[in-house]
Design goal:
The chain is of the alpha+beta class. The chain has four domains: about 150 residues, Alpha-Beta Plaits; about 110 residues, Alpha-Beta Complex (Glycinamide Ribonucleotide Synthetase, Chain A, domain 4); about 110 residues, Beta Barrel (OB fold (Dihydrolipoamide Acetyltransferase, E2P)); about 35 residues. It is about 20% helix and about 30% strand. The strands form five sheets. Strands 1, 2, 3, 4, 5, 6, 7, 8, 11, 12 and 25 form an eleven-stranded mixed β-sheet that branches. The longest helix is centred in the first third of the chain and has 14 residues. The mean pLDDT is about 95.
């Protein structure tokens, strides 16, 4: 009997851990909680089976904080009950519930993830999922879970476990010491620019060269000092050695992520599924003359499968000029998020990209030109033709002129300062990253030694 107990005690369980919504606009961060959990588990010699996963879900959810990211971990443990209790305690400790966080934590013991998890996750990428659906999912699958507040974080917790990578990027997030939380972040802009130049094309979206603006540092009171996004571990670790700041950081962790993949726009919108806050793509024909409204934003409509859809392009994206140069009959593909109907407008798709598939010729009619005098003729009246006022030469027909288009058949994406976490940057167009293999010996986690 004792041998059986010993065998059970020595058997290792594979544990998937998903958590979300531990932060608020006032502080904390779900990835920082992950950093603290990994730190604890590393000290206990826990075996990690993959990078921590940072999955960005539908960016149009109105109550999201920052990038709508959830985290999952996959580990081997001989004592799952003890591990679960430790993690529950850390979730409770590092969740900003007093300022509106609604943390959710889900555990699933298995090496393989059932398709129900993946379906749930795929839906969370582009639709709005009610938290009651998450609670029903947990009950149906008999999952061990924990939540505080209204349990909204359970949606992301399930989805992070269920996410299936078809393309991925990595992000190295460095964390501040507690005494620095809420203070201004000071980093050398020159070092960020240099880092981007030296690690291109294996990192992306670090520095806006047109505006001279650093893009790797957040602006809120959360514990993150900077985040560098890229394609492989070596480039990210190299980046940390180039970046310069006087602040002593606590450490860093590298996450496997769907950032920069355009993941939320892989589904096609149509009349039936275009619900408020949904994200996706749509192809159609421009059906009205684009209108520039107050603030420089552009509105127009497209016809797709016999239905008309309103589109909005905000000036801040940098592609409003492209939208304003569209004409009726242009064939385009667009991607974005659905804004719910208002008093003045039906549901509108807020555009994140415009791909021009075919441009209609922009034709204009004009009075004929006198070949002798090289002057435009004047109309003699309705159906009476035209006559040159200088030499008297007559002509009966107007001429058709093709006006050169100011836009081309290509993909137009926002300027870098208007990118969302999931926006696929131009340098990643056509790239599918599947090659990153997890190796515990890699420098994916680091707590700096204090001197």
């Amino acid at each position: 009997m004792s041998e059986l107990i010993r065998e059970i005690m020595n058997k290792e369980s594979i544990l998937n851990i998903g958590f979300d919504d531990t932060d608020s606009p006032s502080g904390m961060c779900t990835t920082f909680l992950a950093y603290k959990i990994v730190d604890l588990l590393q000290k206990q010699k826990t075996e990690f089976l993959d990078f921590p996963k940072l999955i960005r879900f539908n960016p149009n959810i109105p109550w999201k904080t920052r990038g709508n990211g959830a985290v999952s971990l996959k580990i081997k443990t001989r004592n799952p009950s003890k591990t679960k209790n430790q993690i529950k305690n850390l979730v409770s400790k590092y969740s900003d519930t007093k300022n509106g966080a609604n943390p959710g934590l889900v555990f699933f013991e298995s090496d393989s993830i059932p398709s129900d998890f993946t379906k749930f996750s795929n839906l969370a990428l582009w639709q709005l999922i009610n938290r009651n659906n998450a609670k029903k999912f947990i009950k149906k699958n008999n999952l061990d879970f924990y939540y505080e507040g209204n349990g909204q974080g359970l949606v992301g917790a399930i989805s992070a476990i269920g996410y299936d990578f078809h393309d991925h990027t990595l992000e190295l997030l460095s964390y501040r010491k507690k005494r620095e939380f809420g203070k201004e972040r000071k980093i050398s802009a020159h070092s960020v620019k240099t880092m981007q130049e030296k690690t291109f094309p294996y990192t992306f979206n670090s520095f806006d060269t047109k505006k001279g603006r650093v893009l790797i540092t957040p602006h809120g009171p959360d514990p993150v000092f900077y985040g560098v996004r890229g394609e492989n571990v070596d480039s990210l670790v190299k980046a940390t050695k180039i970046l310069k700041s006087n602040e002593k950081l606590d450490g860093y962790m590298i996450f496997k992520s769907n950032q920069g993949t355009g993941d939320h726009l892989k589904n096609e919108l149509n009349f039936e599924n275009m619900k408020p806050y949904a994200s996706g793509t749509l192809s159609g024909i421009v059906s009205n003359i684009p209108k520039i409204v107050k603030g420089g934003h552009v509105l127009f409509t497209i016809i797709s499968k016999n239905h008309e859809f309103w589109c909005a392009v905000y000036k801040e994206t940098g592609i409003s000029t492209i939208a304003s140069n569209l004409i009726i009959g242009d064939e385009i593909s667009i991607g974005g998020g659905v804004r719910k109907a208002s008093k003045n407008f039906p549901r509108i798709i807020n555009l994140e990209f415009i791909k021009i598939i075919n441009l209609k010729k922009n034709l204009s009619t004009s009075n004929p030109v006198c070949k002798k005098c090289n002057k435009k003729m004047k109309s003699k009246g309705q159906k009476q033709g035209f006559q040159c006022i200088r030499c008297g030469k007559k002509n009966s027909n107007k001429i058709t002129i093709e006006i050169p288009r100011k836009i081309k058949k290509q993909l137009y994406v926002p300027k870098i300062s208007a990118y969302r976490h999931l926006t696929r940057p131009l340098q990643r167009i056509g790239i599918i990253n599947k090659s990153t293999k997890f190796d515990e010996s890699l420098s994916w986690f680091c707590v700096y030694k204090t001197k």
